[in-house]
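DM from R.C. (forwarded with permission)

"hey, sorry to bug you on a friday — could you get me a structure for this? deadline for the figure draft is monday and I only need the backbone to look sensible"
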Amino acid sequence: TGKRTVPKNTYQDKEFVIRTRQNPCAGHSLAHQIGLIEGMCVCSKSLSENEWTAVKLKCMERRDPFNRCPICHEDFGLRQSILLSCSHLFHKNCLESYERFCDTHCCPICRALDYEKRVIYFTKSAYYHKMAT
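My reply, with the result:
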């Protein structure tokens, strides 16, 4: 007689940043780094929630969650996924292996340096949608 309720999808509540920029000005010229070029450097800030939302939307526009991990070429499925601040998506374990092997933090696709990483869960929703259709 008790009514069963299905909990709302709370994937977004579980998302969190696992790496912020270590050397935010690494891609700038020496003149910029030592302050010879006018203007404030805005790259030292971590991404805000609004900026992360824009990164996720860019990733979704490319339909990355419905594709395969660019490193192992397997479906994202239910494995933990990482979204980089450059908007590229990988399995967490694949990206960690790549970083160890290359001994650097650059995106395997666009070679962006010193990115931020965020654990995301919308790949699970995409997987469930893909399996249901």
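R.C.: lifesaver. Residues 50 and 56 are 10 Å apart (CA to CA).
me: no worries. The chain has one domain: 11-132.
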